Amino acid sequence: MEEIECIFCGNDSSEFISENGYSGKKCKECQLIYISPRPSLADVIDIYGHDDAHISAQTHIESDFFKSLYAKHNLNIITSYINKGSMLEIGAGAGYFLYEADKIGFDPYGIEFNHTQSKHIRENLNIPCIETPLDISIYDYKKFDIIYHCDVLSHFYDPIAEMKTMNEMLRDDGLLVFETGNFAEIEPYYLKYIDKFQYPDHLFFFSDKSINELLDSAGFEVVYIYKYSLMPQLKLKFALVKLLSFIKNDKKMDSNISSDSISTVDTKPSRDSSLIKKYLRYIYQYLTYFLRYRVGATVMKRGRPQTLIVVAKKKRQG
Ligand SMILES: [Zn+2]
Asked: pLDDT grade, residue 224 (50/70/90)?
């Protein structure tokens, strides 16, 4: 464990939410949220290598429908700027984004630390994917037209260094595109909608100001930042969690009365019920997507939890 200060401004911070035995600090200057003290780099790498990061690799591979929807949404943004060329995704997960990019004619490459997912990308999707950390030497010092990552920024141990490396790996007219949550400017009222900050998987949460600091110090300038409120999506989830816990309690009361009949029903799910479950999951996933990017783009964002899609380019030299 090591104590750190705001990576941009130094030490003037206040306490933010604690979770999982880790405490968050919030910089008074740029609103960056960071965990301090935090685990060592070796421990962080260990988490990903051993597949016990918050969501397991197999789950990532299976939750296909909304991953494809999210991927297509973000690809639509990218194709409004550039519609061909080489594309590197950092933290490619189960490869949905690269797969969709490949389909519409980009030349995709991935980095994914998780062996199960990385192998899936290479062998089932036939897309190059390596399991080594970001470095200019990977893929034979190749320069990319697009570098992309989604929900990865919060995981970087040294975000400034990683972004500087991305800058070096990008062609002069290339684009850096990434999606990340903005939880740093949330008003206290909305905190109850976020059930987990996922410390220590997440080491940083950025604000508008700290994202700009980060881009600037790594040699980038903003082209555009797309903002989406997560409140519609979080409210749906919040309501469903309440509903499900209500149903569970209801079942428990029933099972106290006749435990035999319930256990018979539960252990032999019919074909119909699993089909219904499958469709319900599709509907839920579509609704989640619709609330996140369609509704989320139009409703109030200030002070709410947000997800941002940042499009940036290299600053001109001199
Ligand atoms: Zn700061």
From this structure: very high
